[in-house]
Design goal:
Layout: H1 2-114, E1 121-134, E2 140-144, E3 153-157, E4 160-167, H2 170-174, H3 178-181, E5 183-192, E6 197-199, E7 202-206, E8 213-218, E9 223-229, E10 248-252, E11 255-262, E12 268-275, E13 280-290, E14 294-300, E15 303-308, E16 317-323, E17 336-337, E18 347-351, E19 356-361, E20 364-374
Antiparallel strand pairs: 1-20, 2-3, 3-4, 4-5, 6-7, 7-8, 8-9, 10-11, 11-12, 12-13, 14-15, 15-16, 16-17, 18-19, 19-20
Length: about 375
């Protein structure tokens, strides 16, 4: 039985090996076939790539040729245009210049109408000063509404505060115990700096904590009557020697103004006319007056007057004038000194009704009387 099993196993091996050999031969033939097909495919791809490169080179040459022809054509067109149209171009440029001059003349006429152009006097000198009171606070502002029936005095002490003291008259203000004689007017938000203005019963001030927001506050009704943002203002001080004031509001014969400095024009002062009812900008002027070594400024009869001093404090003087209507200011003799006083000013504000300067200097409230002359 054992021998029978051995015979069966041997016969199965004899049967298996020929089948395996046939399969191996078929596999080799298939592989050879695949290799041949891959060779044919590779030749075809390489041939097509070579054709693409040739086509790409031909296309590049055609495009370069077309660009060259276009450049030649453009030069011919430009030359022809310069020869035939030079006179027309000159006429167009001259027309644009004439149009611009007409527009500038119209703008000046509009500004004169807007500003009423009724000022017929200029600042010729500062006659005297009077120290009205000494409150002791280094920074502050005091003023009177320039309206016909206004006699009240307003005291805004400090560069950041929210309480205005109102006095019935300058005599009440001059009395020793000022707080007992004053009416306290609280504001919804504190002010920033000392550049406030009171005009037609309203207090206009730069809101503390804002870049350039101006508040219009009704003093009698004690409520906010308007707000506006002053473009470009608030980034640098209006005056280098009064860094607490970024926006200085001013009043003259023509109404409400705002003064500030801008870094883009070399820290020079910008004058802006504000319409007080709508709280809108009417017009702005970039001036040649620098804010460097300036401590204050005021508007009088459409003209900016900038007060300069030394950083250590000395003799304050008006050194730069700018008339927004373009009238020459030579007759106003820059270099006018504020009389008999050494020190510095926190504010200098003009009252057009009384033609006096209300100034705050080293804790004192000062009046400067002005000498004016008729415009030539």
């Amino acid at each position: 039985m054992c021998c029978d099993a051995h015979r069966i196993s041997t016969s199965s091996h004899v049967f298996f090996f020929p089948q395996l050999k046939k399969r191996m031969e078929k596999c080799n033939q298939d592989v050879l076939g695949y290799v041949e097909e891959f060779r044919d495919f590779s030749k075809m791809v390489l041939s097509r790539l070579a054709g693409l490169n040739t086509a790409k080179a031909e296309l590049k040459r055609e495009v370069e040729n077309l660009l060259t022809r276009l450049e030649h054509a453009q030069r011919d067109i430009e030359y022809f245009g310069s020869v035939t149209d030079s006179n027309a171009c000159v006429e167009v440029h001259e027309g644009l210049v004439e149009q611009q001059l007409l527009e500038e003349a119209e703008e000046k006429k509009r500004l004169k109408l807007m500003l009423n152009a009724s000022c017929d006097h200029v600042l010729a000198g500062i006659k005297s000063l009077k120290i009205v009171k000494k409150t002791g606070e280094k920074h502050g502002s005091w003023m009177k509404d320039p309206g016909k029936k206004h006699a009240k005095i307003y005291l805004l002490s400090g560069s950041v505060n929210n309480v205005v003291l109102e006095f019935s008259s300058i005599m009440a203000f001059m009395e020793n115990n000022q707080t007992l004689k004053a009416r306290r007017v609280p504001l919804p938000w504190p002010w920033q700096g000392t550049g406030h203005a009171i005009y037609q019963g309203f207090l206009f001030y730069h809101r503390h904590g804002s870049l350039n927001e101006i508040i219009k506050f009704n003093i009698l009704r004690r409520n906010v009557a308007g707000q506006m943002l002053l473009p470009g203002a608030g980034r640098i001080p209006a005056y280098q020697l009064s860094p607490q004031t970024k926006i200085d509001l001013a009043v003259d014969e023509q109404g409400l103004w705002a003064l500030h400095a801008e870094p883009e024009i070399g820290a020079n002062i910008v004058v802006t006319k504000i319409e007080p009812v709508s709280m809108a900008v009417e017009h702005s002027w970039d001036t040649p007056c620098s804010s460097r070594d300036a401590e204050a400024a005021f508007m009088a009869c459409n003209t900016l007057h900038v007060v300069y001093n030394s950083p250590s404090g000395g003799s304050s003087h008006i050194q730069c004038l700018y008339d927004v209507l373009g009238a020459p200011s030579a007759h106003s003799s820059p270099g006018l000194r504020l009389p008999k006083r050494q020190g510095s000013h926190s504010t200098v504000h003009y009252n057009p009704k009384e033609q006096q300067l209300f100034a705050w200097g080293d804790g004192s409230q000062i009046l400067y009387k002005l000498h004016t002359e008729k415009k030539v």
